[in-house]
């Protein structure tokens, strides 16, 4: 591969990360039109890397094409489907992590929990930093499984889930989430698969309960905001 193609691929990846971040944090709202020309001007790049970044986001389900590129809409029905898949991936992840973990793995998970705690009590608390640490925790646990296919699928569905978690007041659960993470580590460390799976099931149920309760109102607010733009 030539240096030029390496450069183009790297630039495209940076654009992809930037666009994905804006979608996941609702800076680009569901249904927003993404115009290649405008994005190209924003990044001061040709349309080739922009087009490649958008295509990757289409592949992942964040953008869909309907005569034009739009940010994939959000709905209660889609959320339920995403949750069903993510929950089952998480249950498989914790089972395999319990079977395969070692002291180094446990230490890494514990260090992540400590970072979560520290992020809460800093004067300059950053919600996105906490949410990204949560993402890192779940993906780190999946990596312990040794199953790369599981890691990639969980990454995809965690990221699709992220938008719903972001708009539905995850901050109301952040203290509880850390306690639940610590309980998961304890079950994994003890090698108790049944209790680890139950803890994960409870953890996911608690997250789901919060989102299901607030999602219709949040989606309605998003729709109203978009209509007023």
UniProtKB/TrEMBL annotation:
Question: Is-annotated flag, keyword Transcription?
Answer: yes
Name a Pfam family for this protein.
GntR
Q: Which residues form the HTH gntR-type domain?
A: 9-79
Alphabetized PROSITE patterns for the sequence: HTH_GNTR
- GO MF annotations in UniProt: DNA binding; DNA-binding transcription factor activity
**This protein's UniProt keywords:** DNA-binding, Transcription, Transcription regulation
Q: What is the protein name given in its UniProt record?
A: Carbon starvation induced regulator
- Look up and give the organism this protein is from: Peptoniphilus lacrimalis
């Amino acid at each position: 591969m030539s240096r030029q193609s390496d450069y183009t691929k790297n630039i495209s990846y940076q654009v992809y990360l930037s666009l994905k971040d804006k979608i996941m944090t609702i800076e680009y709202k569901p249904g927003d039109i993404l115009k290649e020309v405008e994005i190209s001007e924003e990044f001061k790049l040709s349309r080739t890397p922009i087009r490649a970044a958008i295509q990757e986001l289409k592949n992942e389900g964040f953008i869909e094409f309907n005569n034009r590129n739009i940010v994939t809409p959000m709905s209660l029905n889609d959320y339920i489907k995403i949750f069903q898949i993510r929950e089952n991936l998480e249950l498989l992840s914790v089972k395999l992590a319990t079977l395969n973990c070692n002291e180094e793995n446990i230490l890494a998970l514990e260090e992540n929990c400590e970072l979560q705690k520290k992020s809460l009590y800093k004067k300059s608390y950053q919600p996105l930093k906490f949410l990204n640490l949560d993402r890192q925790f779940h993906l780190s646990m999946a990596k312990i499984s040794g199953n790369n296919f599981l890691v990639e699928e969980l990454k995809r569905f965690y990221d699709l889930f992220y938008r719903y978690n972001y708009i539905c007041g995850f901050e109301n659960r952040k203290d509880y989430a850390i306690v639940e993470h610590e309980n998961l580590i304890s079950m994994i460390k003890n090698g108790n698969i049944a209790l680890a799976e139950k803890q994960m099931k409870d953890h996911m149920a608690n997250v789901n309960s919060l989102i299901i309760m607030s999602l219709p109102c949040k989606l309605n607010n998003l729709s109203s905001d978009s209509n007023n733009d």
